[in-house]
Write a structure and sequence with these properties.
Elements: H1 7-23, H2 25-34, H3 39-48, H4 66-80, H5 83-96, H6 98-103, H7 106-118, E1 123-126, E2 143-147, E3 150-161, E4 168-174, E5 184-190, E6 196-198, E7 212-223, E8 227-228, H8 234-250, H9 252-271, E9 273-274, E10 277-278, H10 283-311, H11 317-342, H12 352-360, H13 370-382
């Protein structure tokens, strides 16, 4: 497969990198320390067109395909070194908004996408619950009952990125319990709907520049026209289509950050001397650097391949799962190895490798754990 990129796409990728490096990286250390969300940065991202990058142009987006969006995510992560903000962007643009882009009605797209594209509204996805994570469909407790021209939702969602700041959420709820995963529907929920509330902001180990909370629905009223696709088609149609985007595009953020970590480690190893020699001359250090580069290149190719197939209309349940599994575990391994190169300094907040190691941990958990990715790969091969 030829991944030679056209000049205009390379230019776009570099423009995203430079924007993130110049506008976001200078403040990330302090924002991470304070677990701070910066709306001014979000506004700049909207002005650049990043918040609606894959949305159709007629609804205020840029019309970017999956590969272009993946390249932008990689460049943004490498430039900003801000895992939390990259996560918030992905939760808004991909998992929060793409259900509307991929499966919404024309009216739903007109009502929501233009404001989401500018950043006036912020989106998120309500899938995981306090008692259902990996078995999200099988043990979902949130219920939606039809009452006249509305659905009444009761339940809650946990670990929701953009929860405290979000305006619009795509929420999954059971509409026919007897049908199991075939009885789940998806709704567009606004924060001002009667019965909607947000739990306390969660204090996280990593991704601290993003905001996360529980969403609570108590007899929440949702107009029937806010259902995405058909009743009981939420998980198998809307959910799976969105998850393939998530497991490709969002994983690219780890690829970008791995590149930054490696560059910093090489620079440090060239200048750090022990036993009167730069440590980059030591074989154990060279081994870590060589393996890091191998993992980065392999991760990038897996992610690009999955994105390219999405753009060809090819379902990618195996490819996107392999990309997520390999790249996210590689990021954790690379964070550890680059930390060994930095020695004690990797334990100090001022060194980005410390933040990278914390942020990388979420990749093996969110969007499906590594164990679930292995199950998906094996199940598809066995079918």
């Amino acid at each position: 497969m030829n991944f030679a990129l056209p000049p205009e796409l390379i230019e776009f990728r570099e423009s995203v990198y430079e924007f993130a490096r110049d506008q976001i990286r200078p403040s990330v250390e302090q924002r991470d320390l304070n677990s701070e969300w910066d709306p001014a940065i979000w506004q700049k991202m909207g002005e650049m067109g990043l918040l609606g990058l894959p949305f159709p142009e007629e609804y205020g987006g840029q019309g970017a395909n999956c590969l272009t969006t993946t390249l932008a995510t990689e460049a943004f992560s490498r430039g900003s070194t801000d895992g939390g903000l990259t996560l918030a962007w992905g939760a808004h643009t991909i998992i929060g908004s793409m259900p509307i882009v991929l499966c919404g009605t024309d009216d739903q797209k007109k009502r929501y996408l233009p404001r989401l594209a500018t950043g006036e509204w912020i989106a998120g996805l309500g899938l995981t619950e306090p008692e259902s994570g990996s078995d999200a469909a099988g043990s979902m407790q949130t219920r939606a009952i039809k009452k006249g021209d509305k659905y009444i939702l009761n339940g809650s969602k946990m670990f929701i990125t953009n929860g405290p700041i979000g305006d619009v959420f795509t929420v999954m709820a059971v509409t026919d319990k007897a049908k199991g995963p075939m009885g789940i529907s998806v709704f567009i929920v606004e924060k001002d709907f009667k019965g909607f509330s947000v739990g306390k902001k969660l204090n996280k180990m990593g991704m601290r520049t993003s905001t996360t909370s529980e969403l609570i629905f108590e007899d929440m009223e949702v107009p029937e026209e806010n259902m995405i696709s058909r009743e009981n088609s939420g998980f198998l149609r809307v959910g799976k289509a969105t998850l393939e985007w998530e497991r490709t595009v969002l994983v690219a953020s780890g690829v970008g950050f791995m590149q930054y970590m490696l560059a910093e480690a090489v620079h440090y190893a060239k200048n750090r001397k022990q036993f009167k020699e730069p440590i980059i001359k030591f074989q154990s250090i060279q081994d870590k650097i060589a393996k890091a580069r191998m993992k980065i290149d392999a991760s990038r190719l897996l992610v690009y391949s999955s994105a390219s197939k999405k753009d060809q209309g090819i379902p990618t349940p195996i490819e996107s799962s392999i990309a997520k599994l390999y790249a996210t575990e590689a990021a954790v391994e690379l964070g550890y190895d680059m930390g060994q190169i930095f020695g004690g300094y990797c334990f100090i907040h001022e060194y980005p490798v410390e933040r990278a190691y914390r942020d990388a941990r979420l990749g093996t958990l969110g969007g499906g754990t590594s164990e679930i990715m292995r199950s998906i790969i094996a199940a598809n091969l066995a079918s």
